[in-house]
Amino acid sequence: MNVVALICARGGSKGIPGKNLRVLGGRPLIAWAIEQALAVERVSRVIVSTDSDEIATASRDAGAEVPFSRPYELARDDSPERLVWRHALRYLGESGGAYPDALLVVPPTAPLRAVADLERCLDEYEKGGADVVITVTDAHRSPYFNMVKTREDGTVGLVIPHEASITRRQDAPVVYDVTTVAYVARPEYVMAKDSFFEGRVRHVHVPRDRALDIDTLLDLRIAECLMGSR
């Protein structure tokens, strides 16, 4: 199976300025994602999509390809990442004459992932019957038990009311948080559809300590503690 790993790393970040180049455990976040993707034997190429010259240089230093510059319209705060995937796949199709068998997306914001997590995502995809494989972890909250929304009259109620009374967390339906550890997608599906969940989606469970998504300075501090404890 021909697998191309894609790492999406734009230069702008409001939560943590310069986030993708922030150092964790002696190397920038982008370098962790590249190293992990390169360690997967089924991956034939590791490509970084970025609009930043600094990120491009750091990516090449870490062993990735940066064969194109991401257009401005795909590097804004509100740019859907699925369009970034399409842009990369369009390049691969035009430059190589065909799409890869699978696109493995490895976000740089989840540096605590294990290479085995990426391998398991590819294993799940290779079973067949999936357009997309996502990673999930145990949910911090349940919309059936302890998540509420406000009503027009100012009162609050459950996000998802349940027919039966649920008084214990253990009795609530099992739900998961979607993580940014990895995604595997069928290229033709990415080019044709606008949502993961329009197609056949399967999942791989990842423990919480490997599923941390770095979006704030607090997340970065937690990642430093977890990495230090290893």
Main sheet: which strands, in order across? 4-1-5-9-6-10
The arrangement of helices and strands along the chain is EEEHEHHEHEEEEHEH
User: What's the helical proportion of residues?
Assistant: 25-40%
Task: Give the helix/strand class.
Answer: alpha/beta
Low-confidence stretches: none
User: Whole-number radius of gyration?
Assistant: 19 Å
What labels describe this entry?
230 residues; alpha/beta; two-stranded antiparallel ribbon; globular
Describe the protein.
The chain has 230 residues and is α/β, with parallel strands linked by helices. 29% of the residues lie in helices and 21% in strands. The chain folds into two domains: 190 residues, Spore Coat Polysaccharide Biosynthesis Protein SpsA, Chain A; 35 residues, no CATH class. It is built from six helices and ten strands; from the N terminus they run βββαβααβαββββαβα. The radius of gyration is 19 Å and the shape is globular.
